[in-house]
Amino acid sequence: MGWCVFLILVISGTVRSQNCRGQEPRQRACENVCDDNGVCKIRAALLLPKNTTYNACLSVVEPVFELALQDNAVQEVFPSWLQFEWMSYDVQDCDAAYAVISAIDAYNDCAHVFFGPSCDFALGEYR
């Protein structure tokens, strides 16, 4: 039994992990909303297609979120020292596989909140 544990330790020490794209894993040192300099920022990921044939696409929804953040009612809810950073991710043609990959990318880019993907709903235009 001891040799089995030894073998696992030797193998795990020599094998390097990579993600599905062959990239080295990234360190995530961004769990907190406020950084060491006292800057507090919520990173919001918007996961929608760039393809404008969908009613809910990046070019339509992004300006709506930006406009909503400028509204007095929304500004009164959040403290003045809190900033928002929008990060947009293309869910190519509303494919579920791209949605998962985009969500993982957003997580790796330190997103705190996710909006989308909304592709499971009937958002495409009818022809």
TrEMBL record:
GO biological process terms, semicolon-separated: signal transduction
UniProt-recorded Gene Ontology molecular function terms: peptide hormone binding; signaling receptor activity
Source organism, top-level taxon: Eukaryota
Keywords carried by this UniProt record: Signal
Signal peptide: 1-17
Keyword Ribosomal protein attributed: no
The protein, known as: Jg14827 protein
Gene transcribed to yield this protein: jg14827
